[in-house]
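Q: Hand in one record:
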Amino acid sequence: MTNKEFLNDEFLKSIDTNFKFSNKPIKRFKMSEEPAQIKLKLEKLMNKINEINDCDLKKNANKMVFSDGNWNSKLMIIGEGPGQKEDEMGKPFMGDAGKLLNKMLAAINIKRESVYITNVVNYRPPNNRKPATTEINKYSQFLYEHISIINPKILIIMGSTAMEALIGCNYKISKERGIWKDVIIKGKTYLSIVTFHPAYLLRQPDQKKYSWADLKEIKNKINELNIII
């Protein structure tokens, strides 16, 4: 296995397959889903999250924070969890970290409304603490479904919580950031890159130079793949 390949539970499940043979032609190309279908799937996912029981995050939060941006975008950003401002407004990246994210995207000529943004957990952790591993695991099933619905060309994984949810807990973000990785979700491979969370950069501004390098790498990949944002 190369440094760019990671196995997760979804992949291990996906290889346990029963093969079926048929004389019918194979449909090798999947047509893009209609916006109405995507919207319906997102609404169903929101309902699933809203029906979660026995969750301390939900009990202490004001609103569910689901997503923001363009669900037809080929660029999807995964953050950690809502803070106070996000909990008030019901959208991710609305506070100071969100303002910095907007500037980061603008630095590579991308408008915030042109990308799709969500978090690992959908309810604010008390006192803005980091989500616990049990909470990350509970919400990861919804995150995997969310990614599958949006079906982006590039996943931007921001922060250690998102990295734990999508890659694993045995990695250090300082070593993994800036490297393109293949993350397999529901049997499909997504081109992904880990970078620092904007909230971390506000606390450690000297690390911004690394995030700038990551942003340039993301921009180069967008151009290489001819992705229109």
